[in-house]
């Protein structure tokens, strides 16, 4: 509980997965006044599947019973019982070994996915309406020593806060405040759509339609997994040739473009990609931002994609945002006074930056692996299997509660050092 005579005002900017999770964590503490500022006019998310590894699920459980229950209401697993612990089956999608199984990494939860929009709806219910402010696109911050922070929004309004958590995604305005305009990003093609499972079953075999698979091939891969309790298959085709991206970050894409890019792939890939021949198929730009020198400055910090956007090859972007939210909200529970906020941010940065940046790096490497271009592995199935196994194990078996304890230990040590 705070020694202050008033609550500490925390502004959360952005209400995606990271912003909602951190807000839900912070709202549990009576000494904090939490306000959420979201650019959109309502809570919204593009509709697609999001896969959660066991680490993300543990973080949701640690964050609270209500977040775990929300997740459990929405989760879809592989549809076949014997595939329940399978993350993905990695299979050659082209060339002389087309159809050959390379690796089957497994974990205690297997492939666990949610429909992004439906999952976010569950979390929205956990944030009181009076603290959620919509149509508030942050443009800039005033950050003068000795004065409250002022948030300036695009609609001309302002708000005050004692500290700010930027959860405003890959094009983060908070990151620009912390680090300046320029940050590294990669932008290859990332195309996907949702396909009714019955259509997938008609075109492919049942096992393939109902369980998670990654077809790998020269320079690209195609992921599929069930969502919507097995009613829908999420299909994502990724060309790793890192072409220059032009136009909006999400845009409709013609099937012919996909067909051209995958023209040399085998019959299974062709049947699968034909399912993307619909007007809803969209292409996303991917980002990879693993190099920022800090996640905070003074009373302003960032989390989730704002801090460490990653490629999707290990299904970890949302998971990392949730891990951030758990550690950061735990630190805020321990804050007594306003001047301790920068120390909490420092402890958060020290623990979360190495982990999340390493996740970005291994995700990038996993993209190279799935494109059969990872140095030292290339097209060797045995080495592929070894590589994907240790890579995923490292990611999944992180002790997130241990990270929280470590962050709290660092925070306590900073307090004892007399920094405040
Ligand atoms: C197609 C696709 C598939 C993916 N699949 C997976 C997966 O399987 N598993 C996984 O773990 N991750 C996946 N990811 C990544 C994952 O979606 C992100 O890592 C995660 O959503 C990041 O959450 P976030 O809250 O940090 O950012 P976001 O979800 O981007 O949320 C940012 C929020 O901030 C708001 N905002 C932006 N700018 C401002 C501003 N200036 N002022 C106020 N508000 C602002 C936005 O409107 C938005 O609501 C995928 C991503 C994509 C695009």
Automatic annotation (TrEMBL):
Keyword Oxidoreductase: yes
Keyword terms, alphabetized: FAD, Flavoprotein, Oxidoreductase
Residue ranges occupied by any FAD-binding domain in the UniProt entry: 8-362
UniProt xrefs under Pfam families: FAD_binding_3 (PF01494)
Coiled coil, from the record: none
PANTHER family: FAD-BINDING DOMAIN-CONTAINING PROTEIN-RELATED, HYDROXYLASE, PUTATIVE (AFU_ORTHOLOGUE AFUA_3G01460)-RELATED
Protein name, per record: FAD-binding domain-containing protein
